[in-house]
Design a protein that fits this description.
The complex is a heterodimer of chains A (303) and B (352). With 303 residues, chain A is of the alpha/beta class. Chain A contains ten helices and eleven strands. Helix content of chain A is 35%, strand content 18%. In chain A, helix 7 crosses helix 10. The mean pLDDT of chain A is 97. With 352 residues, chain B is of the alpha/beta class. Classes of the chains: A alpha/beta (303), B alpha/beta (352).
């Protein structure tokens, strides 16, 4: 699995993988829910790899994010992981009817016969547009210059085998540029404001439901106002950085032991903001309940 | 002084072309980087010839491979075809995906004995039972060449390494396995047997289903010495051919005449004929049990058995079984891939 993920990243093959996260490590609690694959999925495979992740919190969002995931995979010619969990993936949920998709399917930069007639040829891994995304062809394109050799070993812009230092470096830097471009295209977070809140909460996936109820408990029982940002994707968009800058203390709520999303945030935010991040990480295998969040947050707030 | 007059209308004869107007040059690949004398290079040459002679459109060929010396070879034939170097031993899943996305493609997958019989055995066995229309070639030298010649899982019991180490584990017979699991054209050949391998490759192109060809291909660097059972010398001395294999393509206007007493003629999916002149009186290439029995005997006798072991040209392929539309899925327009709003609404209504 991880080998294929690295191959997909490096060869630049579109693909969508749905991760119904269960409790690990190993067989762990295989019939219980978790958010334990965040960190390993973000960098899945050996070598320098980074993957786009989308994070739905409801069955309706699973439906709409499926469209997003396939569009992003083809636009960015890379793998997109949709980080569902067992609670969402295997239990029955209430939902509003799903909205019918209104935008056309995005196929990304694919060259057909007519394009190749006009251009004469193409270089598969060349950054023509400055966004890090090359042009590709698909098998069965009737043009003598359509074919290329996809390989997980070192390659140059023309998809030829290469062990040259500059070819390797150029390619890896371009892949990084592509990932940076993705920041502006992935689903934006959903932000809910409290009343002049100093405290921020960052959560994602099915933790959303426990967090929503906990915010009411905090307001009603402790007079604590909170702002709430629900992450919907990795890489993190501009709004995530702004949200952390706007709050003195930011609690990152998640269903794992090691504060995995908090770790990813630490790698991404300005060093001086790291101290603002606090972890509420829980893993019992049961869906996250509001009281656990409320108790831990109030205790850390000294209430 | 004499002068030559050119008659109007005369042209210099161009290079020879095949039935779709391409020259053999247009089927070539890059220059090989394998060792001089490597059996794999001979196999690449036979693939070029077979594709040329069968008039296959190179843009509609895909050539996935795994990892290893064998799996480098798609770079050395058919430059005009898309190629994909997959993960070690896991070319079958890549090939399956590509063929499901576009059923019009001709897929020639190249693997090695290490790639197939060790790390890839899990994917191999599942590929064989699906009858996916793929030509799966194992370039079989019994050793891991890229890691300096350790035994692979197809090395024969008692075969000797260059270092003198004897193999004390029995080989996996990939042909017996393929027949048992459901591949529909299975054979073994030798990279040094130009005629037999060419005929088998052309039959493979004509076949619609899983073709599994184990081609013994000596490694001149690590497994061509005295004591090896995959050396040129050993194979030449111990090769037993079941048949004299020949192939008559459907587009050649030749009357297919043969003596049914001495030759078995198999009509392929596209109307071509695979002709097997019997060298062993009682061998029936449509009998699975007989095939596996004969392969087992060959191991006991130390024979390198070659020929077409099993063929079934009428079994439905994996694509047929899936009942997909004729138009390649990869190029279906939005109008055909996205059902209308009423379909979604009806689904939602059912869940209410």
């Amino acid at each position: 699995m991880s080998e294929f993920a690295g191959l997909g990243y490096y060869v630049e093959v579109p693909g969508v993988i749905w991760d119904i996260q269960r409790v690990g490590p190993s067989t762990g609690l295989p019939t219980r829910t978790s958010q334990g694959d965040i960190l390993s999925t973000a960098f899945l495979s050996h070598g320098d790899t980074k993957h786009i992740m989308l994070i739905p919190c409801s069955v309706e969002e699973c439906f709409t994010m499926a469209t997003d995931a396939f569009n992003l995979a083809e636009q960015f010619q890379t793998l997109v992981f949709v980080m569902s969990d067992l609670d969402l993936g295997m239990n029955n949920w209430m939902s509003d009817p799903f909205p019918y998709p209104t935008t056309p399917i995005k196929r990304g930069k694919v060259l057909g016969k007519e394009d190749l007639d006009r251009l004469g040829g193409f270089a598969r891994y060349k950054d023509v547009d400055g966004d890090g995304i090359g042009y590709r062809t698909i098998p069965g394109t009737r043009h003598t210059a359509a074919a290329y050799f996809a390989r997980g070993s070192g390659h140059n812009e023309k998809a030829q085998y290469s062990e040259r230092a500059d070819d390797f470096e150029n390619n890896m830097e371009r892949l990084n540029r592509k990932f940076e471009t993705a920041r502006s295209f992935v689903p934006r977070p959903e932000i809910t404001k409290g009343n002049n809140a100093e405290i921020g909460i960052i959560g994602y996936g099915t933790s959303h439901w426990g967090i929503t109820e906990s915010r009411d408990q905090l307001r009603d029982e402790y007079k604590i106002e909170t702002d709430y940002l629900r992450l919907r994707a990795y890489p993190f968009t501009r709004e995530v950085h702004e949200f952390i800058e706007q709050h003195d203390r930011v609690y990152v709520v998640e269903q794992n032991r090691d504060a995995q999303m908090l770790s990813l945030l630490k790698l991404d935010v300005k060093p001086e903001l790291i101290a603002r991040l606090r972890s509420i990480a829980h893993i019992t295998g049961l869906p996250l309940d509001a009281r656990s969040i409320t108790d831990e947050l109030t205790s850390m707030e000294g209430k | 002084m004499s002068s030559t007059t050119v008659e109007p209308g005369a042209t210099t004869p161009g290079p020879k072309t095949n039935r779709i107007g391409l020259t053999v040059i247009e089927y070539k690949g890059g220059k090989t980087t394998l060792c001089a004398g490597c059996g794999h290079n001979a196999i690449s040459e036979r693939i070029v010839e077979a594709m040329y002679e069968m008039g296959v459109e190179p843009e509609f060929v895909i050539k996935p491979s795994g990892i290893g010396c064998s799996s480098k070879t798609p770079a050395y034939f058919l430059s005009r075809s898309h190629s994909f170097n997959a993960v070690h031993g896991r070319m079958p899943s890549v090939a399956t995906g590509a063929l499901l996305a576009n059923r019009k493609l001709v897929c020639i997958g190249v693997s090695g004995d290490g790639d197939t019989a060790s790390i890839g055995i899990g994917q191999f066995v599942h590929l064989m039972r699906r009858n996916l229309p793929i030509i799966y070639i194992i370039e079989d030298n019994g050793v891991y060449g890229l890691t300096k010649g350790q035994f692979s899982a197809t090395a024969d019991l008692g075969s000797k390494l260059k270092t003198g180490v004897l193999n004390d584990l029995p080989p996996i017979d990939t042909c017996a396995l393929a027949i048992q699991l459901g591949a529909t054209l299975v054979g073994r050949s030798f990279s040094g047997d130009k005629r037999q391998l060419s005929a088998m490759l052309k039959a493979a192109i004509a076949h619609k289903g899983t073709v599994m060809l184990d081609v013994v291909s000596p490694c001149v660097t690590f497994n061509d010495h005295e004591g090896s059972t995959k050396s040129y010398k050993y194979v030449k001395e111990h090769e037993e051919s079941l048949q004299e294999v020949s192939f008559v393509p459907h587009f050649e206007d030749i009357n297919v005449e043969y003596d049914p007493g001495s030759t078995i003629s198999v009509t392929m999916h596209d109307g071509s004929h695979l002709q097997l002149r019997k060298l062993e009186e009682n061998y029936d290439p449509t009998d699975k049990i007989g095939a596996i029995t004969r392969l087992t005997e060959a191991h006991d006798k130390g024979e390198v058995l070659t020929g077409v072991f099993y063929v079934n040209p009428t079994a439905p392929s994996f694509i047929d079984m899936l009942n997909v539309v004729d138009q390649p899925l990869a190029t279906l327009p939005d109008s055909l891939t996205r059902p209308g709003k009423e379909v979604l609404d009806a689904c939602m209504e059912e869940l209410r």
